[in-house]
Amino acid sequence: MDFLTLAYKYKTPLYVYDLDKVKNQFLNFKQAFNARKNLICYALKANSNLSLINTLAKLDSGADCVSIGEVKRAILAGIKKYKIIFSGVGKSDEEITEALELDILFINAESKQELKRIESIAKQTKKIARISIRVNPNIDAKTHPYISTGLHENKFGVDMQSASELYLYAKNSSFLNPVGIHFHLGSQLSDLEPISSAAQKIADFTRSLLALKIDLKFFDIGGGIGIVYDDEKTIKLYDYAQAILNALKGLDLTIICEPGRYIVGESGFLVTKVLYEKYTDKKRFVIIDAAMNDLIRPSLYGAIHKFKVYSQNKLDKTKESLADVVGPICESGDYLAKNILLPPLSSGDLIVFENAGAYGYSMASNYNTRRRPAEIGIEHGSDRILKRREKFEDMIADELKILKGESDGFE
Ligand code: LLP
């Protein structure tokens, strides 16, 4: 990829996505499960750019959504309503109402209280809500604690005993139709064992529910398969799929998978420009024009994003020294890489972070009133804008109207 040309054409910081790779990742994933009925619901939270989702919609992807906003994005991007599922521990009444109106595949209930809200809203709006229940298998996914979700100390789902009660409740309700079972252990998983144990455990549990005449149709294994950022081991897609398929032997259910990172992570790059080099008596800093507001993963999880330098000048490797690559934000936690050997750099050199397609732009913010970057897609060798760089005016538009008395902010 010619990052120097892209940076010249679109300016920096810039997200660049290789859409051909996104498609391949999706097709590989789908292929791994083709021995069984399956529905691959891309997890929008990883990257919710409409054009990127549309690329997957054209391959007949479904969508895993965690807010009504994501549900609406999925529909706008061309995902079929009956391939959309809606999860999350705290769905509001408005979200539930709208999801029922939109008639998506099912709503994934994460507590008894929420199931009852879904039931009463379905009753009020004269609908029958298709639901699944998120079961928390109490299995340690062995990933970063912030993105581990399958333990009872995490806020997600309900334990199996409660899940049984909820399924029976739903079966006997005139407004609920339990069609699926769901679990999700965590994200960036690099160890197969917890997933295969969880799949076994939930499959056995599903057998017991079927025996109670709870007529489930979908077995949703969540997302979570990791990618290589640094030197971590990864799970082979084939092994992952086999572990799930083995667990489901004898069960005639459609498998739903909710991969996010696997589909888009490796396809994305964050292209940034060196502004200055700065030395204190302790350290060397390379200051770039992107910051933690653009890619928060290093600051938030201590995540590693490898990068390459692209320069018009010849880089002098003999003069390498350790440096932190930092952004302009007013926090010491604002860094994108730490203690990396780098040659002397000049203003205008590019630093391009890899594996930035997942949880990069989707977690970006306007902190410090910084504009979010543009997003560019590359497909069949040509580049196009998927989202223009935010403007200062975009960020302040609503506040300004209020300040000028042109709006009371209620509309
Ligand atoms: N399904 C559910 C219910 C989820 O909670 C998630 C991710 C996924 C699917 C997709 O997981 P994936 O295949 O992408 O691992 N911001 C963090 C990751 C948070 C993941 C949250 N849930 C990061 O940057 O690593």
Structural description of this entry:
- This protein is an alpha/beta fold.
- It has helices at residues 3-10, 19-32, 50-57, 68-76, 93-102, 112-124, 160-172, 192-211, 237-247, 261-264, 297-301, 392-403; strands spanning 14-18, 38-43, 62-65, 84-86, 106-109, 129-134, 176-182, 218-220, 254-257, 268-279, 284-288, 307-310, 321-326, 335-342, 350-353, 374-379, 382-387.
- Strands 1, 10, 11, 12, 13, 14, 15, 16 and 17 form a 9-stranded mixed sheet that branches. The chain has an 8-stranded parallel β-barrel with strand order 2-3-4-5-6-7-8-9, surrounded by 7 helices.
- Strand 4 (84-86), helix 5 and strand 5 (106-109) form a beta-alpha-beta unit.
- The radius of gyration is 23 Å and the shape is globular.
- The two termini are 44 Å apart.
- The structure holds ligand LLP.
The appropriate CATH architecture of the largest domain is Alpha-Beta Barrel
- What is the count of structural domains? 2
- Each distinct ligand: ligand LLP
How does the overall form come out from the CA principal axes?
globular
| Largest sheet properties | 9 strands, mixed
Give the rounded overall mean pLDDT.
96
Number of helices: 12
Could you state the order of secondary-structure elements as H and E?
A: HEHEHEHEHEHEHEHEHEHEEHEEEEEEH
Q: Percent range for helical residues? A: 25-40%
